[in-house]
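Example record

The entry below shows one chain as it appears in the dataset: sequence first, then structure tokens.
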Amino acid sequence: METILLLPLGIPILLPIIFGILCLVISKKLKDIQELLALIGSFITFISTVLLFFQKPLEWIKNGSVVLRLDNLSGFMLLAIGFFGFLIVLYSLKFMKKSLNSKLSTLNSYYAYILWTLGAACGAVLANNLILLLVFWGFLGLTLYLLIGVGGPDANQAAKKTFIIVGGSDVLMLLGIAIIWFLTGTFQMDKIQLSTLNSQLSTVAFLCLAIAAFAKAGAMPFHTWIPDCAEKAPIPVTAFLPASLDKLLGIYLLARICLNLFTLHSSLLTLLMLVGAVTIIAAVFMAMVQHDLKKLLSYHAVSQVGYMVLGIGTGNPVGIAGGLFHMLNNTIYKSCLFLTGGAVEHKTGTTDLDKLGGLAKLMPIAFITCLIAALSISGVPPFNGFFSKWMIYQGLIQQMADGRWQIVVIFCLVAAMFGSALTLASFMKLIHAIFLGQRNNAITQKRYNEVSWTMWLPTAILAGLCIIFGIFAYQIPLKHFIFPSLPSSIFHLPSSLSGVWQPGL
């Protein structure tokens, strides 16, 4: 395919950082200029990720070493980061302006932090050097702390807790990278291939990097920062970081080390499956008892990480593809749910489920998008969440057929299916409490209407993707994003994955 415009790999890294600096230095009195700059910067970054996606593979080589590398896995991650970054900035135009009038004092700082996060995330997925990856990873921890702190004095405690957990895992990541250098003599990710079969040091290095991935994605027991962040930080921050970007980055790192850097012993794969299964069940039980919309969604954000880790832990092509597909699906429907919750909070001023009700007729777009995303996260066909979960189930069944750790695999399969049922139950409660239940007089005496188009358009786009990526699961996301991301050495498209799910299993 002939490329019309050849872009350097540094563009999606440098552009948002430059626009972020411009947003920061512009006077607070020029709020409209800041918003325009943020919107333009995020849009150009998104366009650059689209163009780069069609140019892969690409490498930036300096002094004989590959510094930045764009392959199939980093290519589709880069595209997702640019897409979600633009949607969040668009959504923030109205939401954050209202929040500014109540408790925020630095709107320009908010847009600067969002754009810097966008640039650093692009750098993290493009980095081929482990030290460079660590630099971007640490910078993302700093911007996460700053963005949570934008929520005002009430968010300071949550921001500190997040910085401690994520920053502590970064120390382990540094230790893991040091061990890798000791064993291989290189920081180049494309030149590293370690086996944990007979090497304790390799196992320690893998566990250090895996813990960093778990903390970023929010897998148990490193999840506790996510509910605090969801409760105190502004909704766009929660939708962008714990709901989408941090999931993408955490699972990207886990997939990269499992597929490219290490050859894993079966006991480590079993450990990953157990972490995934426990995360699914424990987090969904926590979600069931919540009465605040944002905390309920935050625990489901933790629960969904379990499916991704579980899929990668199967170690077989179908399960790994399902885990990566679920990572993509989760960023879509979870962002949609948080942004819909933000629309409800924007209009009613509360996220307490006991104080809401009867909003379906008053906010029909929010109701429809929330319903689609809720059915998708619950694994109801024909939405995208069903197909990725089904592939994970197939991976577990295939793992069970291999005859290894059968009791553990059965437990994980039951946990995954039971967790999906409980997810559906909790979202039935959520939909009824917000949209279908009896109107609460204290809240609905006012005549609410739909939010501004800049707020409902991102949720409508994401809800549409839930449908498209479900009905055309094989034709679009699996064929163009997921299957090409897997190493050719372990992946051959099985005839069973024709795009039609098999009820016989």
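Notes for this example: The CA atoms of residues 280 and 303 lie 4 Å apart. The two ends are 39 Å apart (CA to CA).
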